[in-house]
Amino acid sequence: MNHARQAPPPPPPPPPAGTTTTPSSPPTGSAATSQQPPGVCTPFSSQSAAFNLSLQSGGTSLPSGSLPSGGTTIPVVSAPPTVSFSLHATNPTAVPLASIIANAPSGPTSPLASTPTAGSIPPSISNAPPLPDISGFNPANYPPLDKMPDVNSPQVQQWKQEVMNSGITIPNIAPTVPGGCPANPEAATDASRCWWTCGGCTRESDIESCPDKLHWGMTYDDGPAFYTTQLLNYLDEQSLKTTFFLVGSRVISFPDIARSEYMSGHQIGVHTWSHPPLTTKTNDEVIAELGWARQAIRDVLGVTPNTMRPPYGDIDDRVRAISLALGMIPVMWTRLSPAVAFDTGDFDIQSGLTSASQVILNWQNILNNATMLDHGFLSLQHDLFQDSVDIATGYLLPDAKARGDITIEPVAMCIKRGLSNSYIETNDNKTFPPPQGDGTVTIPGDLPTATNPSATTIGALNASTTGDGSGGSGDNQGSGAIESFHMSGTIVTLTILAGILANMLTVL
Ligand SMILES: [Zn+2]
Q1: Taking the model in full, what pTM does it have?
Q2: Quick one: average pLDDT of 18-38?
């Protein structure tokens, strides 16, 4: 079974009866909007199987000598096989692992520490436009929540024109049919389309790792939601920053939480409007999904993210090209092979497909793998449901902090772009340029241009499929920057400028 094609999961649990501490601004629109089937980034069954295999064959109990004094040993009580493992620290207020289970009663939600006010400037992005006034915010101005937007709307027509104006050629690749790799055997083995879902193929335009060892680009997908405030408050307490990939429908439901994420110095990226597997959608539908999510975020924050994460990691060259044409660079999570990805599996607790203890074991496998890489990594976590937030704030994050050897950062920091370069309006176009105009990435000022005789055309870029045991494909160490790129068919042609913007090539 491919989890990526499973039926939509149950909706996020509402706050318990009598709870009045939902976001400082209650979900806009009807409460029922949050009961719509939300999106989810689910792992591949093979990944979970691999982790299980790893556990059964050797377990992941860390030798006690590897832990600092005071390490906390946590007995696993809820998942076979029964194993124990050690964490460097846990949150004293952590929800017991045995209580982080499917269908657990909902706990109280946390209020936002403060409600961002219109006109504010995020402290960490000095050149940002003022936070918009959303007092007149009207969900009726957006497509129905969690449903594919109408592709015939004037907005989508405008975004289609934007794609055409980008100069980026959208490869003529037929959409896949629902059912993932087994349902699409030809596409699954067609290396030319570089379908990440079936084999982990990436292109140089994908961000999938960080250049520096043990730098962790931490990400949370599918929010904002009821328990995001709990995560936000914890992150603030611990002075941690992350990247949130937002579902447009959730932004409409929880605009103040999205604004709080942004104002607190977290990075915001796009995660579609209704969270479909994008390779199953037509070009127009992909444009509508990305366009409406981008629009919702821009309306609420005043800035436009230049990164996106495809739901389920479901991306191929067609979806890549559309994303880039709309100014959004795909951000994946690190994947060493089709069977080993840096996915905590936290989303599957809610459905009962996995256990909290398994997620912690997954986490330890991620760290074990990370220590063997010569570069950093990106992970996959979620903030849609309480259980994944509970396990992050109670276990994974305290452990990561207590280890002392991991640098926890938003993706933008992990790849050395900086927060301001995460948005179209504040990007300096030097270190994280979005594709613009005719598809040429604008590098202004004193930097060479495509017509500069010093520019060197590298030519066709081969797809890189991870899994060769070399530690991922994000380890290009060439110095230089991508000055421009064009996508035509399955060929990506890059013009590389030698000697500038060192370290940038690894991820763009
Ligand atoms: Zn997702």
Answers
A1: 0.75
A2: 31
